[in-house]
Amino acid sequence: MAEITKVESEDQPPAISTQFCATDADVIFQSKDGFRFLIHRRNLETPFPPSEFETQGEVVNLSEDSNTLELLFQFIYPKRLPDMDKINYATVALLAEAADKYEVFSAMYVCNTRLRYVLGHVHCQCQIIYV
C-alpha cells in the first residue's frame, strides 16, 4: 500500500496520495480525513456512473477514510490488485462497503471472498473451542 502523509498546517496544501497523484488527473477526490486522490476520469467510467462525478474542476468530498479509498482506487486502475491476505478484517469490511456503494465489482468480489474466508476460520475456531 502506498504511503500517505497528512500535512497539518493550513499554510501547506492538503496531503496527496503518493500512489494516486497524476499531474494530468481530471478528478480530485478528498477523503473524510483530508487526503486527496488525483484520478483519471477514464478509470472511473466503468465502476462509477459518470454523471454522478461531473466535478467541473472542484474537489469531490467522499465519506470514506484515506486508507479505504487508497485500496478502492487500486481496483479501478489496470494494475496488480492489493494482497488482501495482508489486510485486516475491519479494513476489508470498510473496503467492501465502499466497493458496494460505488459499484466497484472487482473489489466487491475480492472482499466477499476474503470476508467469507475469515469468517469461516473464525466459525471453525469457535466450534473447536466449544467442543
From TrEMBL:
This is BTB domain-containing protein. It comes from Sphagnurus paluster.
